[in-house]
Amino acid sequence: MRNLAIIFSFLAFFVTGTAVSADTVKLGVVNIGYVLKHAPQAAAARKKLETEFAPRETKIIAMEKRLKSQSDKLAKDGTIMSPAGRKQLERKILNLKRDVKRAKEEFTEDLNIRRNEELNKLQKVVNSAIESLAEEENFDVIFGDNVMYANKRSNITKKVLAQLAKSLKKAKSK
């Protein structure tokens, strides 16, 4: 709702011709979701998270294999085991289930926190690229989310991605 009010305020200002005639206003539209998905910095962030969390994921997979192995052993040999041995194996399986569940929950929580941190960094870089492009190409207003329609002439999404690629090359060359 707030975004719509801002858009209507801009449009009312420009339509009335107050201080600026409508034909001198340069408007642009950016598909933020598309930019966040396709920016080269997004791919780098995904790779960084995969590398960071791969060891923990491998550990959880190994825990799940141990759990399956123990469960299979109980299913196969449970009837011929002594009652004490069976009870001990059941406890071991229960403890493994708890450990796996806890490890998965911690993994998911930590991954979500880090993903949000990387997304916040990416959003700042994207906003900076949009502002830079707006200044370079003399845009008066650039709209982001909640735009219902934009023609190809006003859609600058590809230009923003090019700006992000350029800024990534600059950052790597430093």
Succession of helices and strands: HEHHHEH
Number of domains: 1
CATH superfamily: Skp domain
Number of helices: 5
Mean pLDDT: 86
Assembly category: single chain
CATH topology: Protein Binding, DinI Protein, Chain A
Please state the structural category: mainly alpha
Question: Strands of the biggest beta sheet: in what spatial order?
Answer: 1-2
Rg value: 27 Å
Low-confidence stretches: 15-20
Count of individual beta strands: 2
Q: Please tell me what the overall shape is.
A: rod-shaped
CATH architecture: 2-Layer Sandwich
Please give the alpha-carbon distance between the first and last residues.
Answer: 42 Å
The CATH class turns out to be Alpha Beta
Q: Largest beta sheet, briefly?
A: 2 strands, parallel
Question: Beta-strand level of the residues, as a percent range?
Answer: under 5%
Question: Into which percent range does the helicity of residues fall?
Answer: over 70%
